[in-house]
Amino acid sequence: MTITQSVPFALEATGVERRFPLPQEKLFGHRRYLHAVDGIDVRVEPGRTLGVVGESGCGKSTLGRVLVGLDKADAGTIRWNGTPAGAHTGAVQAVFQDPASALNPRRTIAQAIGEALPRMSRSARTTRIGELMGMVDLDPALMSRYPHELSGGQQQRVCIARAIASDPALILLDEAVSSLDASLQMQVIELLRDLQERTGAAFIFISHDLRAVRGISDWIAVMYLGQIVELAPADEFDDQLRHPYSVALRSAEPSIPGDEFQPERIILEGDPPSAVERPVGCRFASRCPVAQDRCRVEAPELVHDDDGRAVRCHFPGSLQLARRVVEGADA
Ligand SMILES: Nc1ncnc2c1ncn2[C@@H]1O[C@H](COP(=O)(O)OP(=O)(O)OP(=O)(O)O)[C@@H](O)[C@H]1O
Ligand code: SF4
Ligand SMILES: [Mg+2]
């Protein structure tokens, strides 16, 4: 069975883990693992976007790949629309950062987009490819061109058109706008939101760029060293944040002129601990500005509220964003 937009869809992941074996140092030595994704519970609603944010190496791409079935989980369950993942080939598509490497240089734009279309007559196919190009604001006159004849932004639109061609219920967008310049990023995000409204597809939008994530997501999962540390609605990603790491991430988001909310930057010292020898207590304790003794010995659980929010911290809300006084602003 192929899921189409008319069928309610949700992805639910419980206790998902993905670990990578390290090269063995001694022939009969103990096998060691890098725990890239470590006990993730998450849910994506139909027609909604789950944003995933966190610094490089925290496990975002690994999680995305596992959730959409491009990689296997070592533990946990993933269910699509209530049934085990894997049963719905074609219902999921993915768009990655580098469009040039995702497109075959010897195939025209029409051939690239047409790859994902079901069997149909030649004229129906050309019409459908033209429609899909129109949906991503690409001139259908580019149909017979090759990828190298298009700009990076146009190439990424081709990848998006190809991703929506098979009518997917879920699209993984992993750093899909990261290679584009700031104004083009916002244009593609607008386009994705518009496509979501029209097709009803759910998105998992992964980026290290919090502004882009906030621009498209309904809910945002903040990851740190393989775990979700906070799950919050995107429109409450300011004063209401409760995990110190989310607060630090938000404070570091570059402001743009006209931003109402301009937080004081919180600078985190040091690097995340090893994903091989994971700390006993809170994984963020070595960098957390409000850590206490308990944090170093007892690992906090992810605690869910009735409203769907979740936080993994013994002292949620103890670090707050401080508003910066903006010269020339009214308030
Ligand atoms: N195939 C693999 N084999 C071994 N280790 C891997 C593999 N894929 C990822 N890792 C490791 O898993 C961890 C998480 O990597 P991942 O690519 O998921 O991070 P990320 O959050 O997407 O980072 P970035 O923002 O840089 O893309 C990293 O330590 C990475 O080195
Ligand atoms: S549990 Fe402690 S160290 Fe961890 S984020 Fe909360 S306050 Fe900081
Ligand atoms: Mg990545």
Automatic annotation (TrEMBL):
UniProt domain ABC transporter: residue ranges: 22-250
The entry's keywords: ATP-binding, Nucleotide-binding, Transport
Molecular function as annotated in GO: ATP binding
Pfam families: ABC_tran, oligo_HPY
Keyword Nucleotide-binding annotated: yes
Superkingdom per UniProt: Bacteria
Family named by the database record: Belongs to the ABC transporter superfamily.
Name of the featured protein: ABC transporter ATP-binding protein
